[in-house]
Structures
1.
Amino acid sequence: MNLVYLGEIIKQLRRQLGMTQSQLAEKINISYQQLQKYEKGESQIGLQRYLEIAKALETAPHVLLEKLISQNISEPEIQYTSDKTQQLKVTPEEKKLIAYFRNIKDKEVKNNLIKLFKSVSESDSQEE
């Protein structure tokens, strides 16, 4: 299970309810720091805790799983490294971008997107 994406779903549902981390943490009897770890994907969520979170977020447990499945979370976690072999942290936005990119079948479209990102990246770095 992709812990980062599950954490994002929990965070999104919590915010939709107008609930703070402290409020949700209190409802499920954990510290807000532990909830932060769940939302960031830094800690695994046990089945019992998963069910408690779903109930506190007023959603059926299967809804969280359906959201995970719809985001291609079955793909393996990728470790990106720089030329200096230092691990780079991949943001949730970057992971979404990668997932969307992989769904594109047309190679020409993929190449055009790469050119676009390169162009935007180069123009942003020149402005700094």
Note: The longest strand covers residues 80-81.
2.
Amino acid sequence: MAQIKVYSAVVCPYAHRTRLVLQEKGIDFDLIEIDLQNKPEGFTKVSPYGKVPAITHSDNRVWESAVINEYLDEVFPNPPLLPSNPIDRAQARI
């Protein structure tokens, strides 16, 4: 069982961004698909807004894709998501 559980939905591009970050970093994760039209009971304990993506990492929970992706880059710094050169980082963000 992986340390990270990702709550995702096939139709959500924001959830895809988080899955791409995890794959780029080579982080093992368990994928839990959420039917956004029929959310499971207790889902708001993981995602207070009732949206995907959300992750649990050990006893921590994080939601909102940009926040999740920054968290993952800080907790798992290698390989970094962004280049070290400021202009290259700016272009990557664009």
Note: The beta strands are 4-8, 29-33, 54-57, 60-63.
3.
Amino acid sequence: MAYYLVKIVITTALIVAISEISKRSSLIAAILASIPIVSVLAMVWLYIDTKSVIQVSNLASNVFWLVLPSLVLFLTLPLLLKQGLNFYLALGIAIGVTAGCYFLMVSALGYFGVRP
């Protein structure tokens, strides 16, 4: 149980730290947020839990393919906000568009024989 609490505290602390840093410098926060900290932590936790380099390798490969559609969120959200949409509405639409892109990517990968 203590192990799970450590995982939660470390992961949460990183997210809170980035949020707080963004109040002072959006550039530094963006740099920190763009580093795949969550992915790296997930791979570390997975390796500690399973000692399986195969599972870590599979996770890393899947993250690679699914980062591509996730970038749509970072294009869509600022465009919608610049159009004057309410933040929550813009975020919801951007998430919906991103989810659609995930579906398209997974479908395209399946069509080409890549199994994420």
Note: The longest helix spans residues 53-82.
